[in-house]
Design goal:
CATH architecture: Up-down Bundle
CATH topology: Growth Hormone, Chain: A
Strand content: under 5%
Largest sheet: none
Structural class: mainly alpha
Radius of gyration: 21 Å
Number of helices: 15
Shape: globular
Number of domains: 1
Length: about 425
């Protein structure tokens, strides 16, 4: 499998990356403020259940929005959808900032947060579905590496910006007011992303006029996405492998959050816990960048399928050590390698799916892809809530994750099943 650098004169990829990266910097700023308000507030000391609930609030929306994402992404201009969604998301964050300023934590805040993250998943699915239209097949892996890695690093950078700006605001006002001001900065990023979307023309990221289906069928679109993937079994298995990796990563992220908040730092000093957790995420962000950078080269050598198998099972080495040595330095080391390997799996599988699915079906397939991944992420959060104590110390969770990764590699991705098959269509 050969790869080619996708940024060159005349490429529309620069415009798409600008839209995605600015929005994901906003995501990092927004998420850091939300975490500060919900999980690292002096008045709120989280346990595994409350932390898992916060993750579920973030992740469940797309499981509800997802079935209809394909309806829109395969029928209407994806450029218009991304632009309008960013504007709506900006307005939503304004309302969230007002509620947080007043210290509100009830149903209204939860519903607005659900809406914000549901819209975010729609935007990312639209940009992913449109990517193959502006790069060649040989550029696809490198383009995915740039899009996904830059976005993930943008989230980490945004998180650092949010934490740093909040500390400045805290010196001159109440904590809740500081969180609200940080959210307004995230809102500005979303509005800027909407503005930069105008650099893409209406049809640049699809769908083409002749590819628009005639009917709108809601949840049946999700079933259609799964039906299409059954004709490409390696892409379907890759999606499930990516979901399993993301579910394990979520469970371990909750473990790291509780360890930093309640064990590695005094529970009475939430700022120290937030700083420690942010540092671990920053190191994981470096792993994300390296994972995406090296993936095109190793895919050229190993092939997509072998590389996904290798990257799914590799973190198990570090997880076994961390299970028996729950030290902060080993948490950070494990975060680095599991992020590196997880990003390699995601980038490679995104390119695998994009290269095999025709554009008229790609919106529905990516809708199914995101729903499947988010459902397993929520499952990972639930498992963490059941296994983890309030301190976060647990040998069972890293060992359980190791076992799941190994089984997925041996069974789901076994070479006799996980290979490019001739489509059965």
């Amino acid at each position: 499998m050969t790869t080619r650098w996708p940024l060159h004169s005349g490429s529309k990829l620069t415009q798409l990356l600008t839209v995605r990266w600015i929005g994901q910097i906003g995501d990092g700023i927004f998420q850091s403020s939300l975490a500060s308000f919900v999980l690292f507030s002096p008045e709120r000391q989280p346990d595994a259940v409350s932390a898992a609930t916060a993750f579920a609030v973030v992740l469940l929306p797309y499981s509800l929005v997802g079935p209809y994402a394909g309806v829109f992404l395969d029928r209407f201009s994806r450029q218009r959808i991304v632009q309008f969604s960013n504007l709506v998301r900006g307005a939503d964050l304004l309302l969230i900032a007002l509620l947080i300023k007043s210290g509100t934590t009830g149903v209204p805040l939860t519903l607005l947060v659900l809406a914000a993250f549901g819209i975010n998943r729609l935007i990312l699915a639209g940009l992913s579905a449109g990517l193959p239209l502006i790069v060649t097949r040989e550029e696809l892996i490198s383009a995915n590496a740039l899009a996904v890695t830059g976005g993930s690093i943008g989230v980490v950078i945004g998180g650092g910006i949010g934490i740093g700006v909040k500390k400045l605001f805290d010196a001159h006002g109440k904590s809740d007011l500081s969180d609200a001001k940080v959210i307004l900065i995230a809102m500005a990023c979303y509005l800027a992303s909407a503005l930069f979307t105008r650099r893409l023309s209406r049809g640049d990221i699809g769908p083409a006029d002749h590819e628009v289906p005639a009917q709108i069928r809601g949840f049946r679109e999700l079933q259609e996405g799964l039906r299409i993937l059954k004709f490409h079994p390696d892409a379907l298995r890759g999606i499930f492998a990516t979901a399993i990796q993301r579910g394990g990563l979520t469970a371990l992220t909750l473990m790291g959050l509780l360890l930093e908040r309640n064990t590695f730092n005094p529970p009475s000093n939430p700022d120290a816990g937030l700083a420690g957790f942010a540092y671990a995420l920053a190191i994981a962000g470096v792993g994300l960048g390296i994972g995406s950078f090296v993936t095109p080269f190793f895919v050229s050598y190993f092939g997509r399928h072998r590389w996904i198998r290798l990257m799914l099972v590799t973190p198990s080495i570090f997880l076994v050590f961390f299970a028996f040595i729950p030290q902060e330095w080993l948490l950070i080391t494990t975060a680095f390698f599991i992020a590196l390997c997880g990003q390699a799996v995601k980038v490679t599988n995104d390119a695998l799916v994009q290269s095999q699915i025709a554009d008229e079906f790609r919106g529905r397939v990516f809708a199914f892809y995101d729903v499947a991944v988010n459902a397993v992420i929520v499952l990972g959060a639930i498992v963490a809530a059941l296994v983890l104590p309030k301190s976060g110390k647990s040998a069972e969770l890293p060992l359980l994750t190791t076992g799941v990764f190994a089984m997925a590699t041996l069974l789901l991705l076994r070479p006799s099943k996980f290979f490019i098959a001739r489509p059965r269509e």
